[in-house]
Design goal:
157 residues, mainly alpha, two-stranded antiparallel ribbon, 6 helices, 4 strands
Length: 157
């Protein structure tokens, strides 16, 4: 059985911008907004791909989409802070373990938001160096034996 085509796949800058605007201020993703506008996400991505391949008269669709996703990221960060700090619906004041859980939620939301807004300063960093110096190691694979050679370490066979 052949798949049904979903909606109109004909490009329109107005429709593209409408979908990007909807994404930028929503918790919902691309598939939801494409479906609401009777197109497929595949068609949406094809529009971007075709525009990127053009050498002249390029509309910059990928830039528009990337900006919409950046704005959505900011929106979701703000929403996360609102949710984690909203205690208006709580039936009773938090005490004991409940209070600790609420504080953990608040701190996690702040850490995540800080890392997203200023990744150079607040994101988790993976140190691939040793005290700022590059690690000098060599891995030699011979047959089934693996030999690691690092300064001041025994060889593994």
């Amino acid at each position: 059985m052949a798949k049904k085509k979903h909606g109109n796949t004909k490009f329109s800058i107005e429709l593209f911008e409408k979908i990007c605007d909807a994404i930028s201020c929503s918790k919902k993703g691309l598939h939801f907004h494409c479906k609401a506008n009777i197109i497929t996400a595949k068609s949406f991505y094809q529009w971007i791909s075709e525009d990127d391949k053009k050498e002249e008269n390029r509309l910059g669709l990928s830039d528009i989409y990337v900006r919409a996703r950046e704005i959505q990221s900011e929106y979701l960060s703000d929403l996360m802070l609102e949710v984690s700090f909203d205690d208006g619906d709580d039936e009773k004041p938090f005490v004991g373990a409940n209070h600790i859980q609420r504080d953990r939620l608040k701190m996690d939301a702040l850490k995540i938001t800080s890392a997203r807004l200023n990744p150079k300063k607040y994101s988790d960093k993976i140190d691939v160096t040793s005290k700022g110096n590059e690690l000098k190691s060599t891995t030699v694979i011979t047959g089934m034996n693996i030999k690691n050679t690092k300064p001041n370490e025994d060889k593994i066979e």
